[in-house]
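pipeline/complex-builder :: batch 7 item 3
reading input block
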Amino acid sequence: MAAAIELADRDGVDAISMRKLAQHLGVEAMSLYTHVRNKSDLLSGMTEAVISQIPISIDDADWKTSLRQMALAARSIILRHPWVPTTVEMQAAPGPAMLTYANAVIGILREGGFSVAQAHHALHILGSRVLGFTRDLFDDSGDLDPETAAGLARELGASHPYAVEMALAVTHGGALGRCDDDAEFEFALDFILDGLARLQSS
Amino acid sequence: MAAAIELADRDGVDAISMRKLAQHLGVEAMSLYTHVRNKSDLLSGMTEAVISQIPISIDDADWKTSLRQMALAARSIILRHPWVPTTVEMQAAPGPAMLTYANAVIGILREGGFSVAQAHHALHILGSRVLGFTRDLFDDSGDLDPETAAGLARELGASHPYAVEMALAVTHGGALGRCDDDAEFEFALDFILDGLARLQSS
DNA sequence: GCCTTACCCTTACACCGTAAGCCCTACTCC
DNA sequence: GGAGTAGGGCTTACGGTGTAAGGGTAAGGC
């Protein structure tokens, strides 16, 4: 299992095949089937192993700070295993580790004064983003050099002015500096947490 | 292309292979390569074809209602092609249709008075969820029958009380009725749009 | 000593994406 | 009308995949 995680970290999750993993372990492919039922069983095992590393905050702080630190912890772990979002999405039913994690999140909300219905909504909203299990749809943190940027701007500027404006602003050297993923994540997180606070108090 | 989309709608995107698609068209597998460079080229073509169906709202309504109706339109289309989120995530660079869509969203925000920086944040927040390109992390709309529900509750109740409480509430016959995906989506959408409005006015 | 259990191996099958190369049809241009 | 050409289709083949079936072998319990 650990070997599989290491291999996925290094070569990406697509590179994981029974034969490759077996070779990595100095073993034949079919031998893996004594420890694992399927390939999908293998993947879900890997996923669970990573998720179970996320620390469940148990100090009785504010629900908001608890949730915040949990989300950041989840993200920091997942950043070390970039393939996890992919495998999480492939799973049909949540495994024990995932369940424990979800239970902790719901628990923080309930103890923080949210009703079941509110917590349910909150879970859906936090859903993908805050729990950290999501890739950004638009990866705009790329650092394209000025000349290709200029070329793109000339090409697309007429048809997609707004997109180009933003892309240029985000590009290194643009008005906003380059897009900082961490800062962006925290911004979105606080955005949602503040919204939840308002939802609760209304 | 249309045939591929139809096949994916029916059998799921995993069922799409060059040979299957070719057979579906009464043709040999390799013939497809005259129309398509790769399999991933095929998939991105399918994705683009679907995304380009999303109507870009051009009436000059409120930014909020514009965004709202665009998101709902996107969702309604994607509900008819459940495999799209998967293929969108597989794409490295956004194609023209995706770019047009993003440009429209950014345009609505900018015209609505958002600064570039604000619009950038908003895009990240709207990101996966609102644009509709996301599967729910926890699919709790399943309708499990009472006895298995009771069994689960007994089994997990001790270790995951909060999760069980919510699951029971959401299950058919529970306090909340069954989880209505559409309502949940709209709730999250309005939640975010309201947050954006506040972000703008502050 | 024996038997169970746990691990590993070999072989084989059906399927996948796709590189290389050939063939035929249909259209264009003189 | 005849020639040239390009484009769609076909066949074959290669190296990869997940995994079903079945056989071997060493350690631990009686």
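note: Residues 27-28, 30-31, 34-35 of chain A lie near DNA strand C (CB under 10 Å from a C1').
queue -> next item
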